[in-house]
Amino acid sequence: MNCERFMDLLAEALGDELPPTLQTEFDTHLASCARCRREYQSMQDTMSTLRQLQPAPEVAIGRLNDSLVLGRPSDLRRSITQRLNGLLRYAAIILLAFFAGFAFRSGSGVAPMDRPGGGDGPGWTQPAQGDADGTVRMALVSAHRQRPGSTKLAKLLVALHSPTKQ
Amino acid sequence: MSDDRGSTSHVYELYAAQVYGWAYRFLGRHHDALDVVQDVFLKWMTQCARGTPDRPRGWLRRVTVNRAIDVARQRRVTPEADIQVADREGDEQALVRSDREVLREDVSTAMQRLPEMQRAVLVAKVYDELTFAQVADELDIAVSTAKTHFLRALTAMRERLRVRWTEDEDR
């Protein structure tokens, strides 16, 4: 094998894709040619450095979901269909919580949904009970911003915050 | 529709983080990578209406890479460090970043300066360890072209790192 042939095979060698017979020839030339050896070693060092220096940040699926839901203004407009898949799931959770609260109020006379300070619009003052609730709240806010009062979720939003006005 | 939702949800849970990783390694920006993730899964939902791909991972990867290339071309990604990291750390802490972090940003900048196809091939080979045949299939190019792109990209990165290493030695 000469240096020209060596260079032709360099890409495959760096990717560990040489068939065994060619690999043997490649290694033999590597051992005998200092110039080709330097070239190969420097390219290998570069690959090794790149691997060490630029891993993608580890993104837990929950954080990814939060980022997608919160998004940016352009994202809110673009991906309503995608969000509805997740929002419908969260809506089911909210409905269950609402009816549970309604049943509790009917039984005890207490209005668990009442919030101090009242107000006409959503105040979102109650702290989230863990990340899931926070995500749910922001998901509903996102949907409400896009079409206030025109989606089932938005109506649910209003109903949750002003239960006595239903 | 309910089948599509189930399929999309399941595939999302399985692959969303991977899709993000593929996009982030190519684009080097958190929000750009998020945009790609959204676009990819919206496209998946559309695709599922016609028929679910036999190999979801391969389909997702191909679409992710192509979408990331489109994003890079459209937005002409400006070479800079990941803004999210800087925002989180604050300006004061950014001044005392380790040499490794500075070098990582330098590498990221140099990667963003590569032509999109060279960058796509380099990322696929270095980080995802695909074969040249797989890379060529994914990017719809010839195997020989993939090899050429790879060597040119790696040579460019080597020169950038060589400059960096030389600067470090001169300090």
Number of strands of chain B: 0
Query: Into which percentage range does the β-strand content of chain B fall?
Result: under 5%
Secondary structure tally, helices of chain A:
8
Query: How does the overall form of chain B come out from the CA principal axes?
Result: globular
| Radius of gyration based on Cα positions of chain B | 18 Å
Fraction of residues in H or I helices of chain B: over 70%
Tell me, rounded to a whole number, the average pLDDT of chain B.
80
What is the percent of helical residues of chain A?
Answer: 55-70%
Assembly state: heterodimer
Strand content of chain A: under 5%
Low-confidence stretches of chain A: 72-78, 109-137, 150-157, 159-166
User: Topology as H/E string of chain A?
Assistant: HHHHHHHH
Distance between the termini of chain B: 63 Å
Which H/E pattern describes the elements of chain B? Answer: HHHHHHHH
Give the total of beta strands of chain A: 0
Largest interface: A-B, 35 and 44 residues
Question: Cα distance, first to last residue of chain A?
Answer: 85 Å
SS summary, helix count of chain B: 8
Shape of chain A: rod-shaped
SS-derived structural category of chain A: mainly alpha
